Amino acid sequence: MGPAARVERDARAGEDDGPEAEGATPGPAAPGTGRDEYDSLPIDCEGAIASRQEDERTIVYITPTQKDSARPGQWVHCAWKDRPPSSACEVLDIVDGGMLEASCGEVKPGSRRPPK
Q1: How many CA within 13 A on the CB side of residue 92?
Q2: Is 4 helix (H, G, I), strand (E, B) or coil?
Q3: Rounded distance, CA 22 to CA 50, Å?
Q4: pLDDT for res 110
Q5: Residue 48: which H helix or E strand, with range?
Q6: CA–CA separation, 35 vs 16, rounded Å?
Q7: Closest Cα partner for 64 from 91, 34, 36?
Q8: Which residues contact 96 (CB under 8 A, 6 or more apart)?
Q9: DSSP secondary structure letter of residue 94
Q10: Distance CA 5, CA 87 (A)
Q11: Reading across the β-sheet that carries 41-43, which strands appear in turn?
């Protein structure tokens, strides 16, 4: 499954297979600071819509529950109340009065950094 399909799946309410389906450890994600893809900041989201593919990443528009919950350059993930967290996304811009334009990949909150 490619990045766009995973982000779209994460964005649909109640239709997520969860991290268990991909071999990840279930459980809540650790809170992050938003400094990088492996330390993304959990935010409450009303919704997320996958828009387009750019260089193996998916551009997503996220509607956060609270305005000013993130800023450009920060890494975030949707901490849904009723399903596993979304992939980590880098906030590119804030558009339409608070909606986040973000670039998302496949890293899930709490993932280990790859070995160097």
Answers
A1: 11
A2: helix
A3: 20
A4: 85
A5: strand 45-54
A6: 26
A7: 91
A8: none
A9: E
A10: 12
A11: 41-43, 75-78, 89-95, 99-104, 57-64, 45-54
Cα 76 from Cα 69, distance rounded (Å): 9
* Both structure tokens of 23: 């071999």
Backbone angles phi, psi at 39, to 5 degrees: -135, 45
| Two tokens, residue 108 | 């899930």
63: Cα within 13 Å, side-chain hemisphere: 6
Q: Token match 């890494």: residue? A: 75
Rg (CA), the chain: 13
pLDDT tens digits, 34-90: 999 999 999 999 999 999 998 889 999 999 999 888 999 999 999 988 889 999 999
Q: Give yes or no for a contact between 11 and 86, defined as CB atoms under 8 angstroms apart.
A: yes
What is the sign of the dihedral through the CA atoms of 115, 104, 44 and 86?
negative
What CA–CA distance (Å, rounded) separates 56 from 76? 18
Do residues 87 and 59 touch, judged by C-beta distance below 8 A? Answer: no
